[in-house]
Every structure is written in structure tokens, then in C-alpha cells.
Amino acid sequence: MSVVLELDRITKRFGALVANDAISLQLAKGECLALLGENGAGKTTLMNILFGHYAADEGAVQVFGKPLPSGRPRAAIDAGVGMVHQHFTLASNLNVLDNVILGSEPLGKVKSDRSGARSKLVELSDTFGLPVDPEARVGALSVGEKQRVEILKALYRDARILILDEPTAVLARPEAERLFETLRGMIKGGLSLIFISHKLHEVMAASDRVAVLRGGKKVAERVTADTSPAELAELMVGHKVARPKRTEAKQGAPVLVAKNVTVSGAATGLDAASFTVHEGEILGIVGVSGNGQSTLGALLSGLIRPEAGQLTLNGAEVAGLGPRGLIAAGAARIPEDRHAQGVVGEMTIWENAVLERLGRFTRRGFVKRAAAQAHANHLIERFDIRGAAPDTRIRLLSGGNMQKLILGRSLAAAPAFILANQPTRGLDEGAVAAVHTELLAARDKGAAILLISEELEEAVALADRIQAIVNGKLSQPIATETANAQRLGLMMAGMWDAPDAA
Amino acid sequence: MSEAVDLLMSTSLWAAVLRIATPLIFGVLGALLCERSGVLNLGIEGIMTMGAMTGWLAVYAGADLVTGLLVAALAGAAMGFLHAVLTVPLGLSQHVSGLGITLFASALAYYLYRLLVEVGETPPTITPFAPLAIPILSDLPIVGPVVFAQTLPTYLALIAVALMAYLLARTPLGLAIRMTGENPHAVEAQGLNPLAIRIGAVVAGSALMGLGGAFLTTSAFNSFFPEMVQGRGWICIALVIFASWRPGKALLGALLFAFFDAYQLRLQTVVDGVPYQLFLMAPYVLSIVALILVARRAEVPAALMTPYRRGER
Amino acid sequence: MRLERRDDVPLGLIATAPIAAIVAALILAAGLIAAAGVNPGVAYGEMLRGALGSRLAVTEMLTRATPLILTGLAAATAFRARLWNIGGEGQFYLGALVTAWIGHNLGLPGPVGIAVLLIVGMAAGATLLAGPTALRLRFGIDEVVTTLLLNFIVILFVGMMIEGPLRDPLAFGWPQSVPVDGDFRLPDLVPRTRLHFGLILAIAAAGLTWLILARSVFGMETRAAGLNPDAAQFAGIPLPRTLMGVACLSGALAGLAGSVEVLGVTGGVTTTMSPGFGYAGIVVAMLAGLHPMGVVAAAVFVATVFVGADAMSRATGTPSFIADVIVALSLLTMLVALLFTTYRLRK
User: Fold this and answer.
1) How far is B105 from A170, CA to CA, in rounded Å?
2) Which pTM does this prediction carry?
3) What sign does the dihedral B186-B192-B193-B198 (CA atoms) show?
4) Which residues in chain B have their CB less than 8 angstroms from residue A53's CB?
5) What angle do CA B7, B10, B15 make, to 5 degrees?
6) 3-state DSSP call for residue A365?
7) Above 60 in pLDDT, residue B313?
8) Interface check B187 vs A, CB under 8 A
């Protein structure tokens, strides 16, 4: 088989961080290579170099035997490389055809050939089984459709090598399987493929070969048929980090009760959602991204109020209280996006530590700085936040340490209810284990915890009961002991059977 | 009150509408082009001042009027380039940079004017554009004197509207500009350079603003004096929003605006006992009202005012 | 080449930025002065002498700095919260107008009257900014455009009032408002100069603003809301109320500038009493890195340029518009300097 793509000792540094350390890779024609690694292992950086978003500090790329000039996406496209980004690069206000043809015609051309472009697009979408309406506004498309547009964009530019960055991160299991089916068809048609993933099962199911990255280095390469999920897991994580084991919950009285809560809005809302979180238990909400988790998170953070239904905390209505009211009523919140919502990056650690409970650190309208700094010091020690002094600006902390501060400031007040919205997203194994340990400890002390997670593994490890969220609707809860991958997969696709006693 | 109604019937009013609208049309098209690519250009007020001064100065120094317009466009483009460098590759605050450009361009225009021109009792003058009657068309009743007996820059402004509409809607370049204003990451991913597109759009848009300024000194008046732009630039910024970033609607907005301006000017002469300042306030008040009216349904380019840095999300 | 964010900003760099910016602006402007056939060294010498060369010059410069400190504080307060108040000019004029109007005929003893008039001026400025802020909160209308347009409206309104109800009959047709009662004039700071007690007020306002922004709960909430509105909202900070609070503070400071100028210098209102104090306040705020105490220093610089440029113009024949050029340039160079305090260039 001929080699279509070769990366030769690629190195990329960001300041002191070495994101890629002399990584070499080869891709053969008609091959499907999986790039496996944890968050921060350097997968996306490597592919961004290949596609020309970044210029490598050292090393070279060859495509179809020719060297690829670095740092220019145009060169990659012209050489036949197409990339499907994890965060779609689409303009929502424009239609599908606009998004696809952009950049395909010389800018000096006096008139776009839209009808010619439309027929080429329709033909491609028929050939590869990627149905889309060329005139549809991209903002109105579903996530799956948007991904199709992204793939069509690459195919429209005659890509022979396709790179997909975490293509299934936003897809439900059946959709993901359909996607891989389509991709297999493309490989038969002569395309070569690289997909980035951190999900072992899909790497095992879909790839011919796996390259494992860890800490910016390529640590292993395996033919998929010759390896096992267990081996890959160990290669990916390196040293064994033991996540804490969940013991049986001592479920107490109901703490947070939602009855037929309905919220509508721009994003997916909630449709008559009901759930109960008891003292001393973790209720897991699982689902594919974009099915209403954000709305549920915003509701339980006090950011939005429901249009219908009741939300009570220890018997008192808390809907519409706002963040401060909710906190005063005994709630703590871990937001889904620490950078966007959790912290103000340019403010210091001590300021971030007290921002949501300013009332306790105030005298006559002025901030009690000494008390606040002492509190921050206490959190830093108690939660083992490394590289931090109270006066450090918080954006300088690593993701894990930042999350520990958010967790710490929430837990310090001994809350009755904790919302943990994607609490380990983007963290490395060590930090994941720390977060899990703290959440389980809080549960054992009697806190009622609602965990929203897109990682099934995490939900199964932490939650005592699990509900699935699909298009704003919640399934009945099932006991985690009765859950398996298949059943949860079906639940997350909206196929849940009769109510289960849990 | 019948006099006020009679005014509406005069062709001179309607011809004045088109005349008053001309600098606004140039300005609003320029601002629109910048914003469609994602850059707010608050330098407009200063760039128009610069255009007014340089266009006039070129003619005063002996160039012909068309060359004067070209010089004004170039001066506008130069100021636009400065704004583009600060806001696009350097990604500085578009608000503050734009205001800085306005302060700088106006101050520089005044300084150079004082330096290069002997100003006596009255400011020196040039021979401005004469009305250019289009044969046959200008003989049409009503429409003829209103539309087809204007000066050259007014015709240019109307042509620019059509060209801008065509550029944005029908050409690959127009699509690239719109896409850059919506999502520069998408532009980069398709192999184009969003920074170059933004710089180009800001430079070209600023050249149009320069033309708008030059109309004031080479057609509407025949001399240059400080404060002559009088907030027309800010009004253009408001008109872009009013027009939902569409060239056709921008023309409509400029005409509507000019109508009220022309009407109030004439109304002052027939209505007694009302302070003239109230009439002069009307355009500014009107702009704010227009903003309130369209506020909720404005379709803002999604990446407007968001700097793009390669490799940063 | 690309810009890379610095992990930490050295304090020295923050202090150097405005100085580097001013030096760069002076060098760039030197080219324009040379174009006028004047030796820039000589011109800048004249400028310094004109602003700082004598006791009288210094008091003139400080008189000019007084309103600049206040409009600078107004801009700094607003910009910190990402409220783009470009309406300092209008707020200045409205504060001045209302002060002159009420101060002409207010039956109160001197000190009490002064306090009332200052408060009235602040209220006027605050109200004028509250409108655009409400429009932004309610309809999402960019306050840049509305505050700018209001500047024109207010100045026309001032013109209307001083040619109408507030016309000074003793001014021989010169458009000027009736004067404030002599009892309410601010006392002189240095005898036989124009320098008045307003300077002390302005510096006190800077200290107070610093205290509010740096130490109070409101200040911390404002900062959070400006730096990351989503996170601030998540932490329970009510964004609309915070922004309104900022608007009132900022508008009040600009209104106070107008009030102080009337009570300290002009005694009445004209439509030309401000040589762009509101706009120059923006430059002052940026040069100060939006720091309230830095505003005082930046205002002194800008006032030096303005006062010195007049003297330089008389001595060398360079058009005095060079002052506006220098001030505008220093805003642009400061922007670039600020960039390099937070980013560094990397290949």
C-alpha cells in the first residue's frame, strides 16, 4: 500500500509547554488511523499542524510524496487534505451552499457560479449518502446535519485525506454508528482517514490502526486487530490512576425535587422534566451533548426560571430565586464551563473564591480582604490546589487546579444540594480522580448531588441512580446496578422502556 | 400649516434630499463594508473630516475635481489602514481604536489645513462640482430635476450602492467578506485569510467614507472648515444598524434621513417661534429613535467586534 | 510571527507603557512639527515653558487639568465595566447648564449652595448616561452611538437655552448664560490666578473612585462584570443593576466636571466652554490604564500639551491643533503599548 501522508518528527511548543514532541506518523491509502489520547495529549495540535492552522516549530509534513508548506490551510486543502473540526467552523446565519463553496472560487471572479456549485454539492451528497438541503440556513440544522456539511465541505474541495477531530463527541450512539458506516464507504471509494478520539470502543470498532499520544509524545502504535481496549487504556493513561470506588449510598429524605419543569428558549429546553435527588445520593443525568443539559444546568444554577412546574429545595420553592437566593437556600454549583462561567480569569484566586458569597465577606459595603484571603488560603490547603497563592490570577492555574478551587468554594459551605455539571470535562486522570473523590465524600456526608455528564463511564462510576435526557425530556431513573452500556445507549437515544423501580 | 405641506410638493426639496443623502450614502456603505467583515469603524467621523480636507486641498492646489475625490479616497484608505492594523492583526479594542482614529484624523486634518492654507477673513474657496444634467432623463417631469440633475458624486454614490449590493450578494469575494463577519474560523478553515479580508474591507470601506467627506467640500460647499462633518459619521453608524447591514436598506435609510433633514431646514423658514436648535436636533434624535425601532430584529454579523487571532478560540 | 499572551505582567511594564506611549506620540508628532519648518526640540521646549515655566503657567495648566481629571475618571469607571461611555462631552455640558441655571437664583448660604449645585450637576450627568445604558439593557442598543449622538443634542440644547430662557441680558448679544450667584463661586487656590478649589475636589474624587472600585463590593462586582459577564452572572452578580450603578457613577463624574468648571472658572455656560474635555477624558483614562489615581497624572500630561501648545503656537507659528494631534496619537500608541503589556511577540 502506498503512503499518502507522512509526518516527520513534528515538534510544537506553546511557551514552556511542549504540545507535540517529535511525533512521526504515516497514513496509507485507504487506511483508517485512529489517534487516541487523553485531553491535552496533543492530538488536536498535531492535526492543526497538518492542516496548517499552526506552523510546526520543527519537523516536516509530506502529502502524496510532496512536502507541505507549513502554516497555510490553503496548501493543505490544495494538496487534498480535508479537516472536520470538533467545533464546527460554520457560519450559522448563512446557508449550506454558502458555507460549502466559500474559498472554492478565485476571489477575483465577478460572479459566483452558484447553480454549478449546487449541482456538484447535490451530486456529492448523493454519492456519499450525506443528505442536506443546500438552501437551508446552517443555524437551523441539527448537530448531525452540521457535521455532514463539514464533511461535504472537505469533499467539495476534493479531499483525498480526511481528518476528523472527535467526530462523535456530539452524536448519539446510533448516529455515531451511521457516521462510521458512511466513513467506511468513503474509504472503499479510495479516501484515507484519520480520526481523533478518546473513546476506546469506537477506536476498536472503526480503525485499522491506532497511534496513542500521551503528554505530547507518541507512545505506541498498534494494529487494531492486535490490541485490546485494556492495553490501549493503559497506554493512553500511562501510569495507573485509581479512580475512587463508589460504595453503597445511604439514601435519605428528598432534598431537591423537580416536578414537570418546563423551560423553552433558544437552546434545547426542558419538557416537563421530573426528578428527585435525595440526601446522600448522586443522581446522574446522562445524554448526548445538546439535549437540554445546558438548560438544566442553567436552571439549577439559578440563571433561568421555569415556565411551568415546581422546583423545591428541602421543601421550599427555589425556582426564580437567582444564583444568590439559590446559594442562600443551600445549593452549590459547579458550572459546565469553568473558563466561561466558573471563574473570572483576570481576577485573583481569593476574589474568585468569595465572588459568589460576597455577602459573607462584606462590611459596610467594603470587602473584608483579610478574611477573604484567609478563606482562599484555607481552600488552597484543604483542596490541594497547586501552584496557587491567594493573589495569583486564577487563569494561570491548570484546569484541574481551577476546578478544585471551584469545587472547594462550593463544598466549603457544606451545601445540602450540589449541581455538578460536567465536573471533569477536559481534566487529566489525576484531577478526575480528585474531583470524584471529593464528590463521593460530599455524598457520604449527606449532600444531595445531581451529576450531569456526557461520559457514561463517569456517570456509572459516580451515580447511584441514572436518568437519561433526550431532547429536553427525562427518562425514568434506573438504578446504576441495573445499567449496562447497551441499555444506557438505548436510553440516550430516547428509547427507554417501562418505568423501572429504582 | 399649509406652507409646511406645500414644501413637500417642491422639487427643490426632493433634489435636496438626494444631495443631503450623498455623503451619508458613501459613509453608510463604507461603515457597512467594514462591519460586514467584522470590524466596527468608529474612525468614520475623523475619516470623513480627513476626506473633506484632502479632497478640497487637492483641488485648491490645482488638481481637477475628480482627482480631488481620488485623493480623498486615498486619504480615507490610509486612515482605514491604520485602524485595520490596530484592530485586525493586533486585535485591539475596536471601540477605542476607532475613537482614536477619529480624534487623530480630525486633528491631523485641521493641523495640515492650517499649515498649508493661508486663511484670511473668510476661508478660501474652490469651484465645486456643477450639476451634471443627464441628457433626456433630466427632462423628465419631476424625476428629471430631482434625480438626473445632480452632481457627479451623487451619481457615483447611487452606483456604489448597486455595486456594493452586487459584490456582497453575488461574488466569491462578497461571500468571503460576509463569512469573515460571521465566523472567521470558517474562513480560515476554507483556506482563505480572514485577516487579509478584514484589512481589505476596512481599507476599502474607509475610502468610501473619505469620498463622503469630500462631497461636503467639493459639491455641497466650496470650502473647508472645522467641525463641518457635524456627526454625520455617527449617524452613518446608526444607519448601518437601521439598515440591518444591507446596502439597499442603507440607501433607503440615508434617503429617509436626508428627507427629514431637508424638510426641517425648509420648515425652519416657515415656522416661527420655535428655536432653530430644535430643528437641528432632529437628525440626532431621529437616529436614536431609528435604533430603538429596529433594535430587536437587527441581524448583527455574528463576529462583529470579535478580534480574530489565529489558533485562539 | 504571532502574539502570545504573557503569563504574568511585570509591574514595571505597566508603569512604562504610558511613558513609552507618550514618547512615541511626541516623536511621531515631531515629524509634523518639522513639516511646519520648526525645530521640534525648540517647539517642545516652548511647550514645556508654556505649561510649566512659571507659577502662572502651572496654575493655568492645573486649571485645565481639573475637568480632565473628572472626565477621565468618568471614562475610566465606565470602560472598566465595558460600558462605552463616549458621552462625557454631553454630560459635562448638561452638568454645567443645570448648575448655572439653578445657581443663578438659589437662596442658600454659600457652602451649602455649592454642595447642592455640585450634586445637581452630578445628577444631571448621571441621568444623561442612564438613558443610553437603559436602552442597551432593554433593547441591546450599542451605547457608543447613543452617547455620541446625545453629545450633539445636548450642545444644541445648551445653545437653545442660552439664546432663550437663560440668556444673559448683560452679555451684549454674546451667547452666554446668566452667571451663577457670586456666593457659589469656588474659592481660589492660588490668589490672582484662575486655579480654584475644584482641583482639590477632583483629586478627592479620584481617591474616592479608587476606593470604590478597588475596595468596595460594588467595585469588585463591577470588575467581575466587566471582565467576564457570564461568570459574574453565574456568581449571582446582577448585571443590569451593576451596569446602571456604573453608569450613574460615570455620568455623575462627567457632570461634576461641568459643574466644577462653571463654579470655578466660567461662572456661566457657553457652547464653547469645553475644548473637548469629554473626548480628551477618554484619552486620559486610557493613558492611565483605567486606574483612578493614574488619571490624575494622565490629566496633567494632557493639560500640559493643551496649555503648552498655545504658547508654542504663539512662539513658533506651529498651528495649535498640534495639541489635538499629540493627544490623539498618544491614545493610539497607548493602545499598542497596552497590548505589549499583556502579549509578547513570538516568531
Assistant:
1) 49
2) 0.92
3) negative
4) 188-189, 310-311
5) 115
6) coil
7) no
8) yes
Digit-coded pLDDT (tens) for A335-345: 999 999 999 99
Separation of CA A313 from chain center = 29
* ipTM of this complex: 0.94
**Which residues on B lie below 8 Å from A165 (Cβ)?**
none
Neighbours of chain B (3+ CB pairs under 8 A): A, C
Residue B90: C-alpha distances to residues B194, C3, C283 (Å) = 13, 8, 19
Chain A CB contacts of C224 under 8 Å are 344, 347, 351, 355
A346 pLDDT higher than 70? yes
Contact in structure between A409 and A432 (CB atoms under 8 Å) = no
Q: What pLDDT is stored for residue C162 in this prediction?
A: 92
CB pair distance less than 8 Å for A112 and B171: yes
**Integer CA distances (angstroms), A358 to A324, A413, B169, C29, C219, in order:** 10, 13, 52, 48, 12
Chain A contact for B20 (CB, 8 A cutoff): no
- Give me the amino acid identity at C88: G
The residue behind cell 443593576 is: C241
Measure in Å the smallest separation between the Cα of B193 and chain C Cα atoms: 15
Residue A1: count other Cβ atoms within 10 Å of its Cβ.
Answer: 8
SS (H, E, C) A195-244: EEECCHHHHHHHCCEEEEEECCEEEEEEEHHHCCHHHHHHHHHCCCCCCC
How far apart, in whole angstroms, are the C-alpha atoms of residue A427 and residue A408? 16
pLDDT tens sequence across C18-67: 999 999 999 999 999 999 999 999 999 999 999 999 999 999 999 999 99
**Phi and psi torsions of C327, nearest 5°:** -65, -45
Q: Which of A344, A362, A364 is nearest to A353 (CA)?
A: A344
Per-residue pLDDT tens for C127-169? 999 999 999 999 989 899 999 999 999 999 999 999 888 888 8
Q: Element (H or E) spanning C205, and its range?
A: helix C198-215
Q: How many CB atoms lie within 10 A of CB B165?
A: 18
Q: Which residues of B touch A87 (CB under 8 A)?
A: 185, 313
Query: Which amino acid makes up residue C64?
Result: R
Nearest CB partner across the interface for B237, out of C135, C145, C279: C145
pLDDT band at B311 (very low <50, low <70, confident <90, very high): low
